[in-house]
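Per reviewer request, we include the raw input and output of the structure prediction for the construct analysed in the revised manuscript.
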Amino acid sequence: MTAVSSAARPSLVIVGAGPRGAGLVERIAANVPELYEGSGLGGTGFDIHLVDPHPPGAGRIWRADQSPLLWMNSQAEDVTMFTDATVRMDGPVSEGPTLHEWADLDGRLFADRRIQGAYLRWVYDSAVAALPPDVTVRHHPHRALRVTGAREGRQQVWLEGHERPLDADLVVLALGHLDAELDEEQRELAAYARDHDLVHLPPDFTADSDLSSLRPGEPVLVRGFGLAFVDLMVLLTEGRGGRYEGDPEGELTYHPSGREPVLHVGSRRGVPYHSKIGYDLAGERPPLPRFFGPAEVEALPARPEGFDFRRDVWPLVEKELGFAHYHRLFAAHPGRTAMAWTDFEEKYAAADAAERATLVASAVPDPADRLDLAALDRPLEGTRYASYEEFQEGLREYIRTDLSERHDPSRSPDLAVFFGLLSVYGQLIRLGDVGSWWHGFFSYLASGPPGPRLRQMLALSRAGVLHFVGADMAVAAEDGVFRASSATVPGASVEARALVEARLPQPTVARARDELLRALHAEGAVVETPEGLLAVHPFDGRVLDGAGVPHPRRFALGPHTDSRTPGAFTRPRTGGPAFRQNDATARALLVFLRDLAGDSVG
């Protein structure tokens, strides 16, 4: 075992060196001139230690050693790690290139994840280079196992394979997406698979899953129709030697290699996530936030009875998304409306939900131009098919329609709703844990796969390699097999010896496999929200204790916290909630280190 030496100088340890850790370093570098060097104490310097077994910048998800067949689900021009004037923060804007500008790619390209990993490494290296010479950065390619130390004293971060800890004045947990222990249902399914010589692959990061047990030609039940499924689909088809012919922007034909299993996929909704939108928004964006902004968010926790998401928050979100939709419809497609915008806006602002429905019916003649969030969320609700075969064609038609509409500029209110969703997300992170439904709904509408992936789904379906099961897919372990069914096709079922849960593990504190987080939870040093997330202060990410008091020296950022954002990077000029959080945390860290250096000098 080797020993890790500790430094006497002020020290910051960031556990997690992926995009969130790299983004925090970038914000530290941007704020150092004002908050540290400008204090007259810059000459004392400080040390930054990044702890992560994976490479800095790219981290686990974007590392180089993964299949080049796996893409990002955002176009290259829609990916940036740099702030701009739309980010509401106290620190300075430090603009930089988007992925497509940095890599000299077609902005419309869906780059593979290894290219994004290289971009993230460059961002990290650039941030480190921007730090003053007396600020050192060191990457420790190890796992962090524990954090110890009194609230008011230096912390110790214990690393795997080392006898001595890293001493730290401050610790930031930027852990990223976490593996999780199986929940009760998954444990039962895994036990059944062991007892009956079946295959059960629980929720996991698909790129890390061992898929070798899924045999060629055999049926495989897949529960989950989001981005984890898309990765699974790719690795089990092209990844096993299959190929497509035809127009990537049109109809494709799939030629199997013969090594593919036969996939039977279903989910709660029974349909894939909506395609990425394939056009730009010409003209003015909706002026957001309008009905769900800082004032509304601040008023919710102040209610004596507290707030409930469905009762108190969702009506405001519905009104906000409706405003985005109709603002665009009236501005860009006035011929499809029957009222002046000024009149509509005034009445819309004053109306409750029932009154808004009446208003919309009179002002928007075509029902296809009206926003129906409930129908969007559950597109197969109440729909029944007489046979499994009939449903296959029905869902292929659904996907074709989705592709057509998401690439049709005459449907531009859809893109306005996308911007509305981003605005809402930026506000909701201030409320903490609002439950899991919202995050799934956001991903389904705003973070779906590239259009070419849905065209590949259609080709695989026509080739007989992919079959659709339906909504509210139920899985039973019985008669020595796994059996799937759905009310979408009454009386039909599919059986298989293999079941794949195509979704990410839930980032709960209690079930996280991360030893550091589990140890903190066991000690009672962190608080778990009702959804199992790590409770943090919504402004700067300080970890909260059982009394809701922020820890002075421990911070946490990322999807395992109740201030999770849509992602560590984002689309340019959309406010970047993660950037805002990174900036607030970086400034809190620098103020602490500045004051610590001042006390030392004094």
